[in-house]
Structures are given as C-alpha cells and as structure tokens.
From TrEMBL:
Consists of three domains: the N-terminal catalytic domain, the editing domain and the C-terminal anticodon-binding domain. It catalyses: tRNA(Pro) + L-proline + ATP = L-prolyl-tRNA(Pro) + AMP + diphosphate. Catalyzes the attachment of proline to tRNA(Pro) in a two-step reaction: proline is first activated by ATP to form Pro-AMP and then transferred to the acceptor end of tRNA(Pro). As ProRS can inadvertently accommodate and process non-cognate amino acids such as alanine and cysteine, to avoid such errors it has two additional distinct editing activities against alanine. One activity is designated as 'pretransfer' editing and involves the tRNA(Pro)-independent hydrolysis of activated Ala-AMP. Pfam families: HGTP_anticodon, tRNA-synt_2b, tRNA_edit. Its EC number is 6.1.1.15. It comes from Tumebacillus amylolyticus. CDD domains: ProRS-INS, ProRS_anticodon_short, ProRS_core_prok. HAMAP family: Pro_tRNA_synth_type1. Residues 38-470 form the Aminoacyl-transfer RNA synthetases class-II family profile domain. This is Proline--tRNA ligase. Belongs to the class-II aminoacyl-tRNA synthetase family. ProS type 1 subfamily. GO terms for molecular function: proline-tRNA ligase activity.
C-alpha cells in the first residue's frame, strides 16, 4: 500500500475526549474516528487490524469444530419476552418500533435468537452436540460510553452457542472452548489470565470464566494467588475462612453485651478513631431491598458487601441499598447506628467471615449508641450464613490455603458460560432421545469482544513514541521509507524492495509522501509497524537501515540481508 494515497490522518496533539492511552493512540494514529458517543468509524489502518483479530478468532474457532453462521442484528421483541429479558435486561437494550408499531431490539447478544433457530432445525439427539458462532456487530446503550472501543455502544463481537444432550457433553465443549480461548489470546500476543467470574446478565447455572487482559486501565479487579494458579474476578473471588476478628475476646470469654454512647459517630473510620480499636472489630450492618424484600446484611467492619454475590444468593433481579427513610422505619435508628441485635421483621444474612468470630462492636439500633461485646452466634441469629463480601489483598487463597490474594486490573475481552437450560426451557428447545422422548437441550455460550481487543492490545503494547503492534495483528508488517522521494536512486531501491516483498506475500506500507524525514519517522513510530526499513543516503551502495519497532534495535544491512530478515520475522509468525 502506498501511504501517499491512503486515508491515514495522524495527529500530533492528543484529542481532548481521549482519556486512556489506547484511545489516544487510536485517534492519533488514524485508526478510528468518533461519529457519536460510543460509536466509531474504522479507518483503513484500524480496519486492517480488526480483520486480523477477527481472522485469528475465526481460525481457532473453526479448528475447534465450531460452525460459522450469521444471525440478524434486528430481533423481534417476542423472543426476548419468551425468556423474560425484555424487562430484565434494562436500559442498555436498544429498543425500536417498525412502521407497524411492532417492537424490536438491536441485538446486544443472541441467546434467544440462536435457541429459537436450533429449536426449529435440530430435533434429534443424533445431531447433537453442535457448536455455532458468528462475528457480528452488537449494540448496547451504555450509560457512559468511554475509553474509545473499550466501552462503546456499537462493537464487534464473536458469540458462540453450543447445544447438548447432557452436562457431560457440555463440559467437554466448555473445556475445548477454554483451550481455544487460550490459543486465541496467546496468538494475539496478549498478557492475559482466565479467571473465575460472575455470570451477570447472560446468566447460567454452571461454570464461567472471563479472559482478562492485564492492564492498569482495566475496569475489573482480578484476585490472584501468590502461590498457586487461583484467579477470579473480584465479583466472584473468595478467600479461605479466618474467623478471628482482630483485638477482641473469644466468644466463650466475652461478657454480656452492653450499650455505649457514641454521639455523632456513624462511620467505621469515626468509630475506629473514637474507640481506638481495629475496623475488623466491628460488625457492620447494611439494609438492602432485594426484589422488594428488606434484608439486613452483616459483614466485618473492614469488609465490603459484594452485591453480585448477594444477588446470586437470592437469585434476585434487583439489589439496592435501602434509603434513609426505610432504614429508620425498619430499625428505629438513622443510618450509621444499625445493628443486627434485636432486628425484627427482616432476614439477617451474616457473612461467613464473622459467623464464628469473637466478640465485637455493632450498632444499637438507637441514635448515638453502639453495642460492645456482641457475639454473632450468641446475640443474634443468622437467617443464612454465606459468602457475601469482597475479598481483600492479603486474604488467604481459598484453593491452596497457603498463598495470599493480590490484586491486578484487567480488561474483560472474553467470557465463556455453561448456561444449562436457562434459555432452552423458556424457548422450548427440545430434542428426541433414543426412546423418542422429548428432552430439554443443555446450552453453553462463548463470547469474545473482537473490537475491544484492539484497545487491550494498545494498552499493553506502546511506548512514548506510539504503538508497538504485535506481528500477528499489525496492519502492515513492514514500513518502507525512502527518505527523499526526489532522489531517483532511493525511490528505485525502495520500489524494487517493495515489489519483491509483495511477491512473497509480505504486507508493506510504502511511505512515498514528499515529507521531511523527521515527519516520516515520527509517523512511523506512532503507527508502530513491527519492522521499519529506511532507504537513505547509502542506497547507491545497496545499504538500508533495518529497525525493529519493539526492541528499537537498528542496523545497516544489504538489501538482500534486509529481505531475508523480513521474511524470517514475518514467516516466523
């Protein structure tokens, strides 16, 4: 490709709307341009990268035995009503009406559509299992689109769906997809971790893993073990139980609880400062409204409630903190003085980290008062004991019970689910077994954010000068730069090398612009192609400069040496 004719508008200044490095580089390097908030046009350079990511995904999916198809972006509302997600999905669902006033959505995902299709087309156990996928544009009306392609309203996604006669069969496909995803992200040159995750809006009753690309800008927190391979999203992470609350007496030796005066002392930090004890010595109580029901949740003072775990515990559609009026009506006390002792008319959920703890402090359900020497098992009963908290760095690993939990930030670029019968039951997807009896299909679901991967790559692969593309997804593999396009010898040498490389299938961007050398080199570093070949003053001697973008290593080579080096690097990937 000749750069002089290419739509490749590089920018020197960082656009004001760009907050993270990947977004800044996409705009500055001429990969994308914003059309509206969360909606982007892919320019030729960006589209080449997107297609390469897509092809790697497609190759690995095909290798796994999955079959590619294409479903409609426009989906009738009826299929969403069948599963209840028309109401449950929320405002992110892009809804519209046709000229006949019929409701439709622009698909954010395709569980309903594919299940309806397989229901109509597959009717025998002999045709199962089956795994089908598509690579297609999705739409989600994000409340706050940001970070460029990382969280947009329109994005490219690979979504796959498998159908089975048994959980054993689903487990086999799930394991195959787990391996396939590892192959995909490895080929993309990414530093990633598969982590245990929460099923979220997609749902499901079996295993699920997110594939997280490690990056400081990531919106997700990953909890990993310092000793073993345990890794989980913070939403799902657990810790080995260590019951003892710091600095308090064991329950057997604790005196009867008593009320203490704590005027205007509402927060844990205020109580710690006032009473001179550790935050872990407190039993913090919060009121939640869960699907319309009021529930009290008790956690250690230095812990935070994990609302997704709480939502899963109740299999709830909505979980919200109670407002001040509800708190005072239920407990008789304002916010900051709630406690589990003597609470009536509400279910009390006690986090397992304090279920067998020693004595501690709790709210007295009375303004300006708290209780001391409260023992969970003695002074208040738990409706249920469950893990409903976020783990902390330094907690003990639940898997090996030796290592400690440490946190990383990650960008979710893939997610695989064992759905079970969440969609097949309401849609009525059944097959006839060996005895000609109708049985419900068991499903799996496997997604990859194809366009988001571009952002993830740039977050990991850049320096102060610009992008550093991994060879497998670089828009071009070689940047060929004749320093002076008015020098006949330089142009001739560059054109000859350009033609030879193209004949070998090497993707070359020839900078044939009549620009200063400094401008060309700055653009080259910004665009970040893996190899740069500069044809300069030594062209008459058949010498060029060969530079590897990733390492910065530069050397003078003969044309033949440069040609062989390029073939070795390109074919090696």
């Amino acid at each position: 490709m000749r750069q002089n004719r290419m739509i490749l508008p590089t920018l020197r200044e960082v656009p004001k709307e760009a907050e993270v490095i990947s977004h800044k580089l996409m705009l500055r390097a001429g990969l994308v341009r914003q059309l509206a908030a969360g909606v982007y046009t892919y320019l030729p350079l960006g589209l080449r990268v997107l297609k390469k990511v897509e092809n790697i995904v497609r190759e690995e999916m095909n290798k796994s035995g999955a079959q590619e198809l294409m479903m409609s972006v426009l989906q009738p509302a009826e299929v969403w009503h069948n599963t209840g997600r028309w109401d449950d999905y929320g405002p992110e669902l892009v809804r519209l009406k046709d000229r006949h006033d019929r409701d439709f959505v622009l698909g954010p995902t395709h569980e309903e559509v594919i299940t309806a299709l397989i229901k109509d087309e597959i009717n025998s156990y002999k045709k199962l299992p089956i795994n089908v996928y598509q690579i297609q544009t999705k739409f989600r009306d994000e409340r706050r689109p940001r970070f460029g392609l990382m969280r947009g309203r329109e994005f490219l996604m690979k979504d796959a769906y498998s159908f089975h006669t048994s959980w054993e069969s689903l487990n086999e496909t799930y394991d195959q997809m787990y391996k396939t995803y590892n192959s995909i992200f490895s080929r993309l040159g990414l530093n990633f971790r598969p982590v245990e995750a929460n099923a979220g809006a997609i749902g499901g009753s079996g295993r699920n893993h997110e594939f997280m690309v490690l990056a400081d800008v990531g919106e997700d927190t990953i909890a990993t073990c310092t000793h073993c391979d345990y890794a989980a999203n913070l939403e799902q992470a657990t810790a080995h139980l260590e019951y003892a609350a710091a600095g308090v007496a064991p329950s057997a030796d604790a005196p009867v609880f008593e009320k203490i005066h704590t005027p205007n002392t509402k927060t844990i930090d205020q109580l710690v400062s006032s009473l001179g004890v550790e935050a872990s010595s407190f039993f913090k109580t919060l009121l939640y409204i869960i699907d319309g029901k009021t529930v009290a949740v008790v956690v250690r003072g230095d812990h935070e409630v994990n609302e997704l775990k709480l939502k899963g515990l109740f299999d709830a559609k909505s979980v919200e903190l109670a407002d001040d009026a509800t708190i005072e009506r239920v407990t008789g006390a304002p916010t900051g003085f709630i406690g589990p002792v003597g609470l009536k008319g509400v279910e009390v959920i006690v986090d397992e980290a304090i279920a067998n703890a020693g004595a501690g402090f709790a709210g007295a359900n009375e303004r300006d008062y708290h209780l001391q020497n409260v023992v969970p098992s003695r002074d208040f009963a738990a409706g249920r004991v469950a893990d409903v908290r976020n783990v902390l760095e330094g907690d003990t690993c639940p898997k090996c019970k030796e290592g400690k939990i440490e946190f990383y930030r990650g960008i979710e670029c893939g997610h695989i689910f064992e759905l079970g019968t969440k969609y097949s039951v309401p849609v009525g997807a059944t097959y006839l077994d060996e005895n000609q009896k109708a049985q419900t299909m068991i499903m799996g679901c496997y997604g990859i954010g194809v366009s988001r991967i571009m952002s993830a790559v740039l977050e990991q692969s850049n320096d102060d000068n610009g992008i550093i593309w991994p060879m497998p997804i670089a828009p071009f593999q070689v940047h060929l730069i004749p320093v002076n396009v008015k020098d006949e010898t330089q142009v001739k040498v560059a054109e000859q090398l350009y033609a030879r490389l193209q004949q070998q299938g090497v993707e070359v961007l020839l900078d044939d612009r009549d620009e200063r050398a400094g401008v060309k080199f700055k653009d080259s570093d910004l665009i970040g192609l893996p190899v740069r070949v500069t044809v300069g003053k030594k062209a008459e001697e058949g010498i060029v400069e060969f530079k590897v973008r990733k390492t910065g290593e530069s050397q003078e080579l003969t044309l033949e040496q440069a040609f062989e080096e390029i073939l070795g690097l390109v074919l090696g990937h």
